[in-house]
Structure formats: structure tokens, C-alpha cells
Amino acid sequence: MFNIGDRIVHPMHGAGVIESIEEKEVLGQRQSYYIMKMPIGNLKVMIPTKNIQDIGIREVVTLRDADRVFEELTGYTDNKKNSWSKRYRENLDKIRGGDVFEVAEVVKALMIRDKEKGLSTGEKKMLNSAKQILISELVLAKGVNPIDIEQRIDAFLK
Question: Phi then psi for 133, rounded to 5 degrees?
């Protein structure tokens, strides 16, 4: 169970801070929700408290792990020659898994592929989404602004 003020990560939305825990009625059912405020934009996400394990909600990584993410961005990437649909499914599974290192791997692979061959519309959307998920977590882990994190990611991948 998390508390107000905790920094958490939703695999498909990114990281945020629990702003409140509220009882709400949704589709005729009353249950408890975490209200998570995202550091980027003015987005708030309602997460059912009873489903956090199923969804894959976890705490934001430590400062040390955040630094390791940047190290991983500089390592070798095997940009496989799989079909578009297979790559897309594999990358989506990595994002849904919620592991910050796998999300960074997806960002790195897609940015490199974009430079080398270009991306399909679906992969461009996936890159944007994965990058925002990664940035949101690194912002909370390192305590810096989103622009600095994005510039740092871009610099590692140039």
C-alpha cells in the first residue's frame, strides 16, 4: 500500500506523485483510488488501490538506478531486423512490464532505428510514449526538470 506523497510508476502512464487517496464510484462500484499527479503536463491518473499488483505499480527507482539508466543508453543495442509487427509487440511488452531499464532499451532502440531507417507512424507514437514514461520517472528520481532529462537522453543517443 502506498501513501500520499509517495512517488510511483504506472507502466503505461509513467511516474507521478500520489496526491490523494479517494473513494469514488465508477461504473456503479465504489472503491478506493490513488490519485497520481504526473510531473509532466497537468495529467492526473486514478489507480484502483486494489489492483496495484496486477497493474504493476511500483516505486520510482533510486538515484543510483536512474544514473544506471543513462549508462545503459550508451551501451550496444542489437537493432534486430525483425518485422515491424514483431518489433512493435516486443517493445510494447517491454513497456507494459514497467521496468525502467527495458523502457530505456525501447527508447534507445527506436531512436537509433529512427536515425538509421526511419520509423513507422506506430513506432513514432511508441517512441514518444516510451520517452515520456522514461522522462517522467527520471525527473522524479533525479529531481530535475523534464527538459534537462530529455536533452540528456538525446545527447547520449547522438
Answer: -60, -45
Q: How far apart are CA 59 and CA 41, in angstroms?
A: 20
Q: Does 45 share its domain with 95?
A: no
Quick one: pLDDT band at residue 67, thresholds 50, 70, 90?
very high
The answer on 100 and 114 residing in a single domain is yes
Task: Report residue 122 CA to chain centroid gap.
Answer: 17
Distance of CA 69 to the CA centre of its chain: 12
| pLDDT tens digits along 112-135 | 888 888 888 999 999 999 999 999
Q: Are 98 and 82 in contact (CB under 8 A)?
A: no
Residue 1 lies in a domain: no
Could you tell me the CATH number of the domain that includes residue 36?
2.40.10.170
C-alpha 125/C-alpha 149 separation (Å) is 19
Q: Residues of 79-108 as b/e, b for ≥16 C-beta within 10 angstroms?
A: eeeeeeeebeeebbebbeebbbebbbbbbb
Predicted TM-score (pTM) above 0.85: yes
